[in-house]
Design goal:
about 210 residues, mainly alpha
């Protein structure tokens, strides 16, 4: 039987190492979740959710679109829950293909998100009523976005993922700019720069994963 290409011996140890590196990279790409499914649900949630907040609760109390006061917050909450479910399912399917420390790291990192947001929500609920409505809304939005940015940077450090770290840093800087701009403007900046940044990172990460 004539040998096929895969059966032919390699010319040197360097070729063997290169082959191992290529196969390892192919395996990582095969089991890693599609960045679009990890970034885009959150990007669209921020874009539309915070966008509605800006249209209803604009700067200096302006109302650009006369929506019921409860609608933007409800839409934002539903979009964030949906994004969490989508990324959770995608991440879980990827984790099923791995075992060992990496799988445990992913599980602990996911639990960190849930526990951290629950703890911060509990804290804000205790003190939010002491502030004017605009300041309370900025406290909630700014605090949650700050936590998201910090956790993204922590995830980038854990997995040595430069793109994830840069996204976290961008999210944090965007949030700070929005806080300095004030209520109303914060929603617009987070919707466009924050949500748009996630959409862009999902798009940029796709060729790398392929």
């Amino acid at each position: 039987m004539e040998p096929i290409d895969d059966d032919e011996p390699l010319d040197s140890p360097a070729d063997s190492l290169a082959l191992i590196a290529r196969e390892r990279a192919n395996l990582v790409r095969d089991i890693a979740p599609d960045p679009r499914w990890m970034y885009w649900p959150w990007g669209f949630a921020w874009l539309f959710g915070f966008g509605l907040l800006f249209l209803r609760f604009g700067p200096d109390g302006r109302v650009f679109v006369d929506l019921p006061a409860w609608l933007p917050l409800t839409v934002l909450a539903l979009l964030l829950i949906t994004a969490g479910v989508i990324t959770g399912v995608v991440g879980a399917r990827s984790a099923l293909q791995t075992r060992g420390p990496s799988s445990r790291q992913g599980l602990m990192y996911g639990l960190t998100w849930s526990i951290a947001f629950f703890g911060l929500s509990t804290l804000f609920a205790q003190f939010g009523d002491l502030l004017p409505d605009e300041k309370a809304a900025l406290l909630w939005a700014g605090g949650m976005v700050a936590l998201a940015g910090a956790l993204h940077m922590a995830g980038g450090a854990i997995w040595n993922d430069r793109q994830l770290f840069i996204l976290g840093a961008w999210t944090s800087l965007t949030n700070v700019a929005g806080i300095f701009a004030g209520p109303g403007w914060h929603s617009l900046i987070v919707a466009t720069a924050g949500g748009g940044g996630m959409l862009l990172f999902g798009l940029v990460g796709r060729p790398r994963s392929r």
